[in-house]
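thought: fold this chain, then report.
action: predict
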Amino acid sequence: MRRLLSPWFLVLAAILASRFIGMALFPFADTTEPRYAEIARLMAETGDWITPWFEPGVPFWGKPPLSFWAQAASIKLFGVSEFAIRLPAWLATLGIVYLTWHFALLLWGKAAARWSALVFSSMALTYISAGAVMTDAFLVLGTTLSLVSFGLVMNGHVRYWRSLFFVGLAIGLLAKGPLAPVLVGIPIGLWFLLIRTSLAKLRHFPLFWGSILTVCAVLPWYILAEWKTPGFLDYFIIGEHFRRFVDPGWAGDLYGSAHVQPKGMIWIFWTWASFPWGIIAISGLVISWIRRGTARESVRALRDPALLFVLLATISPLLFFSMAGNTLWTYALPSLPFSAIMIARWLISLDLAWFKRFRWPLAGTVPVLLTIFVVLVAQGVATPKTEKQLVLKYQELALGQSSPLFYLGDLPFSARYYSRGTALELAPEELLATISNSKYETYFIAVPKNWAPVWAEQWIEDARTEAINRRYRLLSFSGTNHRQELSQNDQ
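observation:
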């Protein structure tokens, strides 16, 4: 009981629990969250647990199904809501926090474990991804489980960790694909190379049976996915895991666009993702090296094989993605559990007075700032790119003889999700023909706020503005009157 009431545990619990506010109140904002949320909703609605569907009739080949399985299961249990679909990512992050804490505890004691968990949970990307509909939290749960298992086995903690290594690989392969074993294998391979130890240590792992069980857990879905929608393996294995990274201008993305960045940008992304701790650690190390000449001490500390392994687990994802031409800041997430351990051990070893004074405010920086932002959005002060309120307004006004909600131009993912797949995309050149040939009493059309061609000026003036958001205005008008006007103009 005393442990549960300790300051570090209360702060950690407050950080993790505060994420519930954003999970419940913050709407899905384009593009990632509503896109994946709609895929999960379709999975729950159709009962198709093999193929994630981008939209009816269009399979989603971009990711394996583990995150969608978890989100669809949450929908089945709790209904369709932002909180329910985000909950699996929070639970996955909770698992990563535990692994980070347990790894540091077994190797370096309570103080390192507590601050490793606090630093990791309060990093910007950790906090955001903990309550976001993305696949990254599930990937990192898998890679962290495998790497923690390896590190503990190499330090004599064999027991069930020797088997959990393969469980982590299976999770990663079903969450993100072949990227998972690559992110696990790089730090392990470098560690064996640098400490010049024998690969015979791998005998602690059940390599044969572990590999067999991993394949049996993963391969059936890949086979079924290709059988059900042929072409999946070529797109996912070759396109997503080769062309995307070696070709900065890759135009083969079926579901979005490539994120072209300068090579090496992942290191800048890491400073954003690890905020505020990464910047503090970098600044503190530079100052310490200049003032105290501790560079040699830092290098000597890396003679500890366990600490060297944590460093390699920290930098390996960054080294790997340095070669990629298409990167996102979420690609830094696999590095953060081990970054947190490195930062926590460094801060504790220095015994800095300023850290003791400001440690709790630092841990609360990201949770407090993002919670304030969520409250501002909930109060209407800030407006994210979401169609939630506009779609809800349409649903409030629409009657039996009303048209579907048409979006002129591109149909945002958030409109597709909040309309439960009923919103339709309408090209501007199809607008008049749609009005003429359809028999709805009332039309509802969302038009871009800056859309005002000369031929539509009178049409826009006659329509009634029902709602306006950051990008669109919702217009309603009488179908009968406009059909008569169009008929007279044709005559």
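thought: worth noting. The chain has a mean pLDDT of 87.
final: tokens above.
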